[in-house]
Amino acid sequence: MGIIHKRQVKISFCITCMNRLHHIKKTLETNIKDNFLPGMVEFVLLDYSSSDGLETWIRNEMISYIKDDVLVFYRTPDYKTYKRSHSRNLAFNLASGKIVCNLDADIYLGKDFAKKMISEFQKNSNTFYTNDQMIGDLFGKVIVLKKDFLKIHGYNEFLNGYGFEDIDLYTRLISNGLKQVVFYEKEFCKFIEHSVEERIINEYYFQELEMMFISYINPYTTKLFILLKNKTCKMGVFIDNLHLNSCSIHNNKSINDYFYNDLHRIVLEEDLEHGIWFRSNNVLSVSFAIEELKFTLEEDNTTLINEKLFYLVSDPTIITQAILLLSDCENYRKVKKSSMLGSKINTEGFGSGRVYRNFDTSSIII
Q1: Which residue has the higher pLDDT, 2 or 79?
Q2: Comparing C-alpha atoms, which of 128, 130, 118 is closest to residue 148?
């Protein structure tokens, strides 16, 4: 059993934020006050190219905490969309604590959470901690020694969008010999409820979507076809194995038993097809690697593609849920394929980027 000594311990709460000022206003100061331990706690806030006034608000309202060395503010101006894995890796790299915690902008830590975590790692450092994984809003909250995080090369930056980057990280930590410990105390499980759209509104698929079509195949199978603003497109078939096989969740299942079993998930039948597209009036032309398609969008927003009826999706709720499903299934397929091949992740580095510290744009860190 490994231990770390109190005089060596510092915990860094790493917050990555793109256009979530409304959440930061509610959680940041509360979290700092509830966990103020001079010299032992820092909050690393990475402004990931926000456009909602986050930097100005921090400068005007939180400067005293920066002067007290409990809050460190970084900003990178270089990103149009939110990259979940990269932003977290960058924040963890900037952290100075031996213990690091991913903290979403909408999460409340709870009173003396930092003290509890420092105490836990003093007892046993061969662990990492997470919230109850059945609470989706808290799923990404992970506390781990920075050396263990760096050893497995952090979050997988090959994954895009929302979903599965956390499970992949936890699985690799376990494979590296660490034990996952889950805490269930209610005082450490508080968060701001918000819409699904808010989770993904700054991510690539949501920002770049031009049109979305779906085609019903059977009650458990649906084809999705999306056209992006950069004139690329993707098409794939989703299979709902969870309902097809009438599977249920069992509390005694491990991460690998549940999250890595196709029978417990909605999955992509095959890798997504990638192509390019252009439009002339109501005629859409699409070129994939093995075929070219040309079809007309009818007045009722339907079209036939390879004799299959597709519907143009206009409902914002369906679009949001479909994008969420798409990114989760695509990431799951990437992780599973990479695991089967024994591929290593982030082999060319991770968490690098151009940032400046505490409003000083002359001190660029690469």
Answers
A1: 79
A2: 128
Each domain of the chain, given as residue ranges in start order, spans: 9-194+350-365, 197-341
| Nearest to 175, CA basis, from 265, 254, 100 | 254
Q: Strands 179-183 and 127-131: what pairing? A: parallel
Instruction: Judge contact between 75 and 197, C-beta under 8 A.
Output: no
Look at the domain 9-194+350-365 and name its fold. Spore Coat Polysaccharide Biosynthesis Protein SpsA; Chain A (3.90.550)
Which residues, in sequence order, are CB contacts of 237 under 8 Å at separation 6+?
217, 221, 222, 223, 224, 268, 269, 270
> Which single residue is written with the structure tokens 């900003």?
75
| Lowest pLDDT segment from 35-39, 249-253, 277-281 | 249-253
- Give the chain's length: 366
Q: Average pLDDT for residues 334-352, to the nearest whole number?
A: 91
Residue 188 near residue 131, CB atoms below 8 Å: yes
pLDDT digits (tens, 9 = 90+) for 302-322: 999 988 999 999 999 999 999
Are the C-beta atoms of 343 and 334 separated by less than 8 Å? Answer: no
**CA end-to-end distance (rounded Å), the chain:** 37
- Contact of 344 with 58, CB cutoff 8 Å: no
Confidence (pTM): 0.92
Distance CA 342, CA 172 (A): 12
Strand, helix or coil for residue 3: coil
